[in-house]
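Revision sheet: structure tokens.
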Amino acid sequence: MTTAVTVTGSSSANTITTGSGDDTIHGGGGADVIVAGSGNDTVDYFGAETSIDGGTGSNTLVVKSVSGLSAVNLAATAGTDITTGDTVSVLNFQNLNSSAVGNGLTVTGSSAANSIITGSGVDTIDGGGGADTISSGGGDDVITYRGTETFDRCRYRKRHAGACGRWRHHGESISV
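Predicted:
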């Protein structure tokens, strides 16, 4: 199928496969097997899935529950599990949205442009040097900045006035 679709599974074990459209997949939190196809897909992660494959395209993993998840490596080689600390095989994602969870994550971006959004936990984020967009949540986050990323300056200013994450800086200055 080349048209974008939204698929919502049940809390049971689902097998969901979509085509080349820019699809949105909500597995429902069961022991799902999800194959998103070749579009720019958005897929929910609950931590109970068996496997999630974003396929080709620029795909976004939306973390709904941590369930042991401790790290996400968007720089992992295609076809390699990008998550650590969980039992789910998660492949082929370039973007992360974990704004719904309060647990801290370690997130590593690739040299390509990633969108990285984290929640209220104490996160450690390294954009990886691409033209990334990074928006950290309310925790005391550590962000490695390499000079090519953009970040949520309003959130940074608000947090910098009080408790703020520590910024590691490599060769560029931060203008706020």
